[in-house]
């Protein structure tokens, strides 16, 4: 029996209060005004209440039914209950300030970003969560299979599932359902925890306030080691674990999409309740998704997307197995029943890559068909898992790993009893992480052609979180404009009237001119000026160097040539991404597109020009008109009517002159030399040579002064013999004459000159 003395003095004259007593009989003798007496008894009762409440928390499992023990801890009896704690999470703002319960009601479940504070096992955990928008396929529904082809559907729960981190622990992983309560997994660098809210009758037995729900948090218990057998049937290898779990699955590329179906028996729905079983399943799926996006998996990560939730009203009628059958038979029969959908085309709405059968009628362990992801051979791809509460997520992630070509860590030389692919359900800090062995195999598979089926996005729009976003401050991912959209809707942007202000987020509606603010600061990392960002409500230098943009290498000239002959154009491109200008750095100088002439060979005689073709396409019977000074505008004429038809297509000649090769590109006339090179100055010299300097020919000139009066074609006189290769030949009669000019071949044939009709004049060839 411990004694105590409590005294209270008000400082008013001789007023004093003395309380002498002992516990636990609460005997006392006192002398004080009645108001002080009430204060002391109230304080004493509060102290006793706290002691009793704490004791009740430590023994809460004694007040649980057998079903509740299985629900909260995943075990069958009191002797196997792991170490646990009771905590009431607090919803906070980005700065860790507890939010008003009246604001929380409209925020939780609607916001894409959530913050929580909670205490667990003597440590304070600050959680930052981001909605996992890739968890649920857009067309996700719950299917209920009754037998004889009868299927009914109901809506799936709303997506209130989040992934994130413990703010002070960069190696942490948090996967929770966030609503008015939390459900899921918290993996820190020290331990792996599971959390879920207490039911109303259990919550009454622990301390609580009016605005927070008590939650049960427990550590993963250490499990007994079990053996894992391997069976081979042709090409299909089956791995079994007689206790706790066994299975395999995985994914591929920079980010792959693994479409999964979650299938449960009717008894699973009855265990968790019709209104809650899908919520529990999706919480488990969200934890699986978190593990397949964890940094330990390697560079190429996997989006685990639930495309279907199925309730089997009777496994006996639907798949020909009962609860007493072995895991091997359950898997074999489930492959017959659900496996065919994994073999369907990836474009089929009923396709999924893997199914996971989760059942409370499986006593322990799990089983998976190995190495079957993306394979069109065999019976399909899936796994079966014992329901062990939230820890079922570790089973499912493990078994999917087997589907994805992973072996047990101990079989391939990695440490045992630590990581996801251990032969037994692991405990400790690495229970939800991948070993080096798993990472190596996964990355090889995901980066190779065998993972081809994981490249398709599930039907409908499915936003993705790019890998480069990981590790960034929230304001770097969601700038001020995005934060305004989250708070007030798509019509709002960061207020242009409050530039550089970080201590309050002001949002502006350009349509209505309305400016709103909840007086909370802009999220850390949001840009507020050039080379500055918001940190703790202040616009400060982000410390990043100015990075000037640099050009990438040129692509190939792989665009189609605009013309099959007479010179079209093609182009190649480059981008200002080597590096991308940032932090106020200058952009690249120069053009991002480079053109060249292609197919410069002459078209067949009589072929229509490019302009002629364009006019005919625009208006039947029209021909090009060149009277405009706008060389690259298309004008077409029908009779005397001329109409503009817009800009000519790239590669169109600027002029009608066949000896002018200049072409229009993007509405501008670009010079082309006689060498058919864009922007070339090459010209034909006096000798007819492209790019020559005129020294490859000589001039012959003279006059014919003879008085030729003999009539008759056969009596024609020779004025000048033309040498082979003669160029730019011109003859001209100085005055009227009754004679005619002509050109005659050596064999006597006249090439030019119809003397019976020609009048005196000039001839040029």
UniProtKB/TrEMBL annotation:
Zn(2+) binds at residues 398, 402, 408. Disulfide bonds join 374-453, 414-437, 484-507, 502-534, 528-539, 561-598, 565-603, 576-588. GO terms for biological process: extracellular matrix organization; proteolysis. Ca(2+) 1 binds at residues 259, 353, 453. Pfam families: ADAMTS_CR_2, ADAMTS_CR_3, Pep_M12B_propep, Reprolysin, TSP_1. InterPro entries: ADAMTS/ADAMTS-like, ADAMTS_ADAMTS-like, ADAMTS_CR_2, ADAMTS_CR_3, MetalloPept_cat_dom_sf, Peptidase_M12B, Peptidase_M12B_N, TSP1_rpt. This is Peptidase M12B domain-containing protein.
